[in-house]
């Protein structure tokens, strides 16, 4: 996983040629731990307070536009309940609110991420965004009934957890099933998983609705995408 892999970054993934103990080819990484994200967002909060800089936008600005455009094209009602899983600095929530969505919730297991997103949202003068510290792998019972769930880099981060990453991914799919309404949409952007791999990860209870176009790269005569962006629908 690399920051800004879409639109600016190098698109390098965290896949290691040697493979991980879990057999997925991922090298376990600090990016999979809460301590890492707490430290990142603590730092970004300080930077925001000092300079007003909101910090890293994962996968670049275009990744947010791509999702919002899809929601508008498919006439997702502006009052549909939308959950941003692992919201980080919450900048995507701000963009959703500016696009007119009025029933939006951001969760993150890092309290410093939620403090940062709260500060950014407050500075933007937006008052109707719900924020909660929640571990999506162990969510509260209240985290249900959503029409749209969005993941930009969070499943990637969870996949890099040093312990039991395979189990954690299964827990993720279960939590998603609980959070999302039947026929609800799940929009995932990932730089660690290909389209085929994501189809496999979310094969139970979800079906592919649409693949969103992402920038292509060409290397050694072969072309591919460094980022996958898929829309699933809960069956
Ligand atoms: C790569 S960052 C992406 C942040 C944000 N979605 C964005 O696009 O800028 C991954 C985020 O997932 C959060 N995260 C990782 N595991 C989580 C979990 N189990 N529950 C909730 N949030 C989690 C991290 O704290 C971090 O904010």
From TrEMBL:
Residues 80-210 form the Methyltransferase domain. Its main location: cytoplasm. Keywords: Cytoplasm, Methyltransferase, Nucleus, S-adenosyl-L-methionine, Transferase. GO terms for molecular function: protein-lysine N-methyltransferase activity. Residues 1-11 have a biased composition (Gly residues). Pfam families: Methyltransf_31. InterPro entries: Efm4/METTL10, Methyltranfer_dom, SAM-dependent_MTases_sf. It comes from the Eukaryota. Residues 1-29 are annotated as: Disordered. GO terms for cellular component: cytoplasm; cytosol; nucleoplasm. The keyword DNA damage does not apply. HAMAP family: Methyltr_EFM4. Protein-lysine methyltransferase that selectively catalyzes the trimethylation of EEF1A at 'Lys-318'. Belongs to the class I-like SAM-binding methyltransferase superfamily. EFM4 family. This is EEF1A lysine methyltransferase 2. The gene is FAM53B.
């Amino acid at each position: 996983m690399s920051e800004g892999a879409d639109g600016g970054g190098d698109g390098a993934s965290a896949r290691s040629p040697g493979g991980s103990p879990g057999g997925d080819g991922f090298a376990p990484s600090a990016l999979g731990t809460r301590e890492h994200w707490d430290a990142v967002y603590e730092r970004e909060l300080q930077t925001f307070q000092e300079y007003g800089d909101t910090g890293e936008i994962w996968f670049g600005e275009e990744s947010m536009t791509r999702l919002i455009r899809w929601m508008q094209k498919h006439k997702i009602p502006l009052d549909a309940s939308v959950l941003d899983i692992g919201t980080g600095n919450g900048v995507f929530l701000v963009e959703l609110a500016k696009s007119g969505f009025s029933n939006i919730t951001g969760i993150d297991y890092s309290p410093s991420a939620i403090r940062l997103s709260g500060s950014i949202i407050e500075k933007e003068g937006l008052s109707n965004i719900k924020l909660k510290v929640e571990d999506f792998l162990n969510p509260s019972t209240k985290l249900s009934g959503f029409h749209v769930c969005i993941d930009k880099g969070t499943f990637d981060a969870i996949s890099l957890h040093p312990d039991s990453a395979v189990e954690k991914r299964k827990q993720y799919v279960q939590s998603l099933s609980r959070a999302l309404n039947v026929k609800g949409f799940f929009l995932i952007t990932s730089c660690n998983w290909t389209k085929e791999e994501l189809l496999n990860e979310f094969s139970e209870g979800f079906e592919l609705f649409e693949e969103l176009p992402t920038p292509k790269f060409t290397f050694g005569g072969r072309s591919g995408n460094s980022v996958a962006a898929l829309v699933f629908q809960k069956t």
